[in-house]
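S1.2 Input.
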Amino acid sequence: MAGNNRHIWNRPFEGDLRGYPVHRVYAEIHQDFASGHLRLTRGKAQKDIYFFKGLLRFASSNIRNENAGGMQLETGELDQTTFDAAVKYMRVNRTTFAEALIKTEALPLNSLNEAFANQVQAVSTGALGWQDGSARFAPGEEKPAGVPEHSLNPLEVVLRGLPRYFTVEVIRGFLKRYSQKVVIPTARMNLEKHLIQRYYPAEQVTTFIHSGQTVSDILEKTRSDDDLHIVFFLLGTGLARLGGRETAGKAADTPRKPTGMPTSTRESAFIKDIRAEYRRIAEATHYEVLGLTQSAGNADIQGAYLKAAKKWHADRFARHSLGDASKLVNSIFARVVEARDTLNDHQRRAEYDLYLDRKAKGLPTDVGVILRAENLFVEGMGFMKMGKAAKALERFEEAISLNKGEAELYAWRGYALYRVEGKVAKEKALADINRGLNEQPDMPAANFFLGMIALDEGKEEEAARRFEQTLERDPRHVEAKRQLNRIKASKKGPGRASGKR
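S1.3 Output.
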């Protein structure tokens, strides 16, 4: 979920994909109408994606089966000799491989254009699966000369591509943790609704969101996997957010078209002030937007709002030619309204203060990061079921590095550690499991793990007590029931058991 630490994409950027997922990068570049070169790197793999005014114009990578030429070589449409000739041209002339394919006429023009279109789709969509690695954005850098241009909406790439990398199980598991939250539409959601309906014409989930439904309500009413993917798309791209119970979202502010270039010293001064304020609030909290402290009361909030609204309402600038700065005025005013609405609502303010607290403590606040941790957690549990505790431990370690606030992760990590290293790691394992149990006393898994460790040590009474506690919290816990029955059977002894027969 996009937070107040949002980057402004007319400036250079360097960051870690674990903290700034690719789908969020795409969405924000599109929102900012940014132009430039995005380079994604993971190990030896590299992707270069070029944007112009928020649209994806070209993309290439050093992954052979993603690129024009490599894909055709695999399908037999291009032979190895022709492919090698293009590679040689690229190296000798120090061009891109795309330009080399054009210059060597490796494919007929129609086939080449189709190949490049497929390349842009493959590279940009494949990047959504990169949940680690690094990103660098250079504003203004243009695509390589001589290659075909495309005009692809990056939100369309995200909408179509995310289901490949985030399973319904992971998304549903994440949403259940926020069952009483409301999925609140932003102003931009209305502008992009046509895109969703183009691919999902029968979808109903956007209607649910606009009617102020809780996550629990949406999970109950959704009839298809598509609806869950749409919810994640909206949250992951910032078109919707999680919040407290409230009714409909705010109406969209339609950006005003530029009315021409500034014509006076006064207008130049306005533009300077507008740009300075836009930069100031880019990473500001709601309190900072209104010039308040976190102890501000309702009267303080209303007074600060009225002052800011008077200064930044579009009507104040209606008679002036501000050029592109008119769009910034709308953005500033929208932030002022959002700050007022959030801080005036007791529940939303409490949730926002919690968000600030999580951010200050280094805990994740972005949906993409939390879902990545959830995905790793699910993978880890799968490895535990297969008896591959070492691989499970790796997943739990990585999940905790992304989301340090989930008690259950510590319990599973502790038990995986015990299974990998045995009694030598017992104290460390117990510390993790007990930490999880202390933070979440109703957790069945933690009691079950303590029971299994006690059973390994021959402490059957303690193990039985733990398995009973597990079943109190989860009566359907099959393994706890099985272990408890084994303990009860062992206490009867072989003589009594044979006597029964």
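S1.4 Remarks. DSSP finds 23 helices and seven strands in the chain.
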